[in-house]
Amino acid sequence: MTLKKIAIYGKGGIGKSTTVSNIAAAYDNSTFVIGCDPKADTTRTLVGKRIPTILDTMRDNPGCSKEDIVYDGYNNTICTESGGPEPGVGCAGRGVIVAMQLLDKLGAFDSDPDLVIYDVLGDVVCGGFSVPLREDYADEVYIVTSGEYMSLYAANNIAKGIQKLEGKLGGIICNCRNVENEEEVVSAFADKIGSKVIGIIPRSKLVQDSEYKATTVIESFPESQQAEIYHKLIDDIMMNDDIRTPHPMDIDEFEEFFYSYV
Amino acid sequence: MTLKKIAIYGKGGIGKSTTVSNIAAAYDNSTFVIGCDPKADTTRTLVGKRIPTILDTMRDNPGCSKEDIVYDGYNNTICTESGGPEPGVGCAGRGVIVAMQLLDKLGAFDSDPDLVIYDVLGDVVCGGFSVPLREDYADEVYIVTSGEYMSLYAANNIAKGIQKLEGKLGGIICNCRNVENEEEVVSAFADKIGSKVIGIIPRSKLVQDSEYKATTVIESFPESQQAEIYHKLIDDIMMNDDIRTPHPMDIDEFEEFFYSYV
Ligand SMILES: Nc1ncnc2c1ncn2[C@@H]1O[C@H](COP(=O)(O)OP(=O)(O)O)[C@@H](O)[C@H]1O
Ligand SMILES: Nc1ncnc2c1ncn2[C@@H]1O[C@H](COP(=O)(O)OP(=O)(O)O)[C@@H](O)[C@H]1O
Ligand code: SF4
Ligand code: SF4
Ligand SMILES: [Mg+2]
Ligand SMILES: [Mg+2]
């Protein structure tokens, strides 16, 4: 039986895929990793290469099978990528909808993985990108942020989306960019919106070094302190039962909050 | 008669609004500034405060008039903000469509401003956000980027959208983040996609200092070197007649290109 279905949201470039792939690699039971960011590189470090996306595969071969879109990855993971629309025309969010429907139809969830993780872009919190939440694919959300303005701005917007949909927030993951007062501002932010910081991930060169070889830190540097941090994060997520609907700030409150820390 | 209708695209947080408001303030003839980013803060430094957005105004007052959504700003500018959807439900891109239709209907373009500038988010290049281009509201695009991966990744995606719509790219604006080889990589990027760098904007503390007072650099530090740079940029844009459909890279080309510079 699936123990948890979680969605990781955050601004583009903030470290969602790095976090998702490393916690999936760190979790020994079966994990289904679903990349829902048009960038489509969540699963690259698990599979060892970029995999074809669901949208691209469907375009070329409308009658595709599960094997065409779901790939085995490192340490008991199975991996898929929704992919994005053609720039300038399609709807990125609808891509997520179409991808989810196909996964359902092809029975991709039938193996009952212990953990399901969605990696979702949070720059534009529109109807499309909220599908994993809205359609009950995911039960709890974690937001990745640094202490930077745009990243917290996006986190606050994501919290607005979660509140609107009466979804549940499990916590905030601070992926450090080493800006001033970073842990302090992220922790105060979590507090403000009625949540908590569930993990603090330091910046580490091992992330790039492993990424370069299309692997996770877990695979390439299993004994490192960074690996230990991802292990602890997934343990804490699996044990977390304090999940709540957040109460985000309005834009004026947010700006006042942020500028009181810089 | 309107001389130019331009759209400035770029990743969230890259410096679009700063650039747009400063070049609008630097241009002495009449300018219509249209913010199309859900963040809705393009015009704040021109008007001196945040203005109500078109989407919010329409929600509260469907029969609103031009005066409710178009505001006078610094140095012969008029300003409006499309605004965004409710997080989690609406479509951010459709917001742009609805806003444009209302501006048209209320005759907001009737005064024939010499210059029209659209400030558009480029993280998600979907149907919605490409409206200014697709519906011929704008004739030429400028992309703001730094030398960072995500910012160039977004720039390349925006170029894909422009190519798809057979739009025209006027050039790349490098808004420096002071990363390694920045001018070199941005200029090589411009070259690769068949465009050119039209301006290089240094990082400057004057930007934050003026922003803090809800003004542009042009207004608060008119004699500064930074102000001069924005003056030169809008002059170069107004004189630019070398605009072309770009030929963006595919994702593998892009990664190979980027990693050859870092
Ligand atoms: N903790 C970290 N330490 C060092 N680099 C990181 C860390 N987290 C992410 N990065 C780097 O930041 C970049 C963006 O991360 P990524 O996971 O792709 O972001 P996202 O999925 O949110 O777009 C990647 O190149 C990655 O190597
Ligand atoms: N040239 C610059 N020098 C210093 N700070 C800048 C510069 N350009 C932008 N910024 C800062 O970066 C932040 C984001 O800029 P903004 O124009 O709001 O980005 P966007 O409109 O693309 O989201 C702002 O706080 C602004 O002060
Ligand atoms: S619902 Fe979201 S993803 Fe879809 S077109 Fe609208 S803004 Fe884009
Ligand atoms: S829903 Fe979002 S991604 Fe889709 S067209 Fe609209 S703005 Fe674009
Ligand atoms: Mg990612
Ligand atoms: Mg902006």
Automatic annotation (TrEMBL), chains A, B:
It holds the Pfam family Fer4_NifH. Its cofactor is [4Fe-4S] cluster. It comes from the Archaea. PROSITE patterns: NIFH_FRXC_1, NIFH_FRXC_2, NIFH_FRXC_3. SUPFAM superfamilies: P-loop containing nucleoside triphosphate hydrolases. PANTHER family: LIGHT-INDEPENDENT PROTOCHLOROPHYLLIDE REDUCTASE IRON-SULFUR ATP-BINDING PROTEIN. NCBIfam families: F430_CfbC, PRK13231.1. Belongs to the NifH/BchL/ChlL family. This is Nitrogenase iron protein. The gene is nifH1.
